[in-house]
Amino acid sequence: MADSSIYDELGVPRVINATGTKTRIGGSLIRPEAVEAMARAADGFARISDLQARASELIAECTNAEAGYVASGAAAAMTLGAAACIAGDDFGAMARLPDTEGLADEIVMARTHRTGYDHALRAAGAAIVDIGTNDRHLGTGSTNVEPWEFADAITDQTAAVAYVQKEYSSPPLAVVAEIAHQHDVPVIVDAAAELPPKSNLTRFVEAGADLIVFSGGKAIRGPQSTGILAGNHQLVESAALQHLDMHAAGDVWEPPLDLVDVDSLAGVPRQGLGRTLKVGKEELVGLIRALQLFLEQDEAELEAKWSARVEQVIAGLDPVSGLECAVTGGEKVSVAPEVVVTVDEADAGVDATTLVGDLRRETPRVFVGADSLDDDAFTINPMCLAAEEAEYVVERIVANLGGTR
Ligand SMILES: *Cc1c(COP(=O)(O)O)cnc(C)c1O
């Protein structure tokens, strides 16, 4: 671990990240080559729409979608996607959003797919229509949503169906997409954190996603403030028209043809809702470089690295009395294996919640996963953890246990 960093210089506590690609502690570590590319981008100017067209080409190539676009995060890409589904090619609608009066503005979602990121859809003016129940989670039934419930909820007010992709999401995307398409309604898929494997870049497009989002700042390791929108050409074009800076002189406005088919347009759109979701030339270049490297990355090597880190943590913590380690299996919520450390308060001399809180107040702050505190457990995710940092995390956990050791 570096002894001093820009954070030390600014008097801001550093964080040792044992919790994975979490936005609130800065996502992932951007690839050094992407930082270098950003520095080079900062050396001169390029038309943002030309950079978006270049990004679109790469995104289309690696997702098998027709087109792609970059916004200031996966959440931003969801807002743009929703705006595209609501406004289509209607300049008037684009100009009025998020006011949706007179427009089909409903987005159908299974209750069990609702997340805090729904706000991103609603920011475009969408009204979310919930279907299904939460039976399975509560143990009061065996399914959350039946496929027919999607068909039942789709009306002439429906702009899209939204789907959150996880390994355990149900019903399968292909089933939902087929129903939506029978009703001529597009499906927006949130797959923000579902990389790697890189095969997931194409998998959900093949399953029927009309628009899909991936975070640029998680495992792709591009700039934290980037997100990818990929999908149907017309929808991506609508997203672009609502995102590009449109204080443009109409007579010389010439967006890249691959992204925007100017001849088919009624004129020049006004500044759209997406303008607040801008990305700069540096972010665009950084994301392009990071995505190229993500595609070249040896996944077996990466998995081996994560497994080694997991083993290292288990070797350090499992023998400690009061702590019991397990590795997440089929029910995993992360793309990487995680160590689940269950804390027996009597033996450990401290409960999991106190321990996790104390670790965060140290200098540097130590962040372990806090999503299982109700089960007296915390998690350690290897994705953002170097070997020496893993050693340090083990050491700090043991040092924070009570009693005599
Ligand atoms: C991280 C995440 C997002 C947001 O991604 P950003 O790139 O940070 O905007 C959205 N949805 C899900 C499921 C995520 O995990």
Structural topology:
Blueprint: H1 6-10, E1 15-18, H2 32-41, H3 48-63, E2 67-71, H4 74-87, H5 91-96, E3 106-110, H6 118-122, E4 127-131, H7 135-138, H8 147-153, E5 158-164, H9 173-182, E6 187-190, H10 200-206, E7 211-215, E8 227-231, H11 233-243, H12 281-296, H13 299-317, E9 323-327, E10 339-343, H14 345-348, H15 352-361, E11 365-368, E12 377-380, H16 387-399
Helix pairs in contact: 2-12, 3-12, 4-11, 8-9, 13-16
Pyridoxal-5'-phosphate binds at residues 23, 73-75, 115, 117, 164, 190, 192-193, 215, 217, 227.
Can you characterise this structure?
β6 (187-190), α10 and β7 form a beta-alpha-beta unit. The two termini are 26 Å apart. 39% of the residues lie in helices and 14% in strands. The longest helix is centred in the last third of the chain and has 19 residues, at 299-317. The radius of gyration is 23 Å and the shape is globular. The protein has helices at 6-10, 32-41, 48-63, 74-87, 91-96, 118-122, 135-138, 147-153, 173-182, 200-206, 233-243, 281-296, 299-317, 345-348, 352-361, 387-399; strands at residues 15-18, 67-71, 106-110, 127-131, 158-164, 187-190, 211-215, 227-231, 323-327, 339-343, 365-368, 377-380. The protein is an alpha/beta fold and 405 residues long.
Low-confidence stretches: none
Content of β-strand:
5-15%
Spatial separation of the terminal alpha carbons: 26 Å
Mean of residue pLDDT? 94
What small molecules are bound in this structure? pyridoxal-5'-phosphate
The counted number of beta strands is 12
Structural class: alpha/beta
Taking all Cα atoms into account, the compactness measure Rg is: 23 Å
Described by strand count, sense and barrel closure, the largest sheet is: 7 strands, mixed
Count helical runs: 16
The percent range for helix content is 25-40%
How would you sum up the global shape? globular
* Spatial order of strands in the largest sheet: 2-8-7-6-5-3-4
Order of helices and strands: HEHHEHHEHEHHEHEHEEHHHEEHHEEH
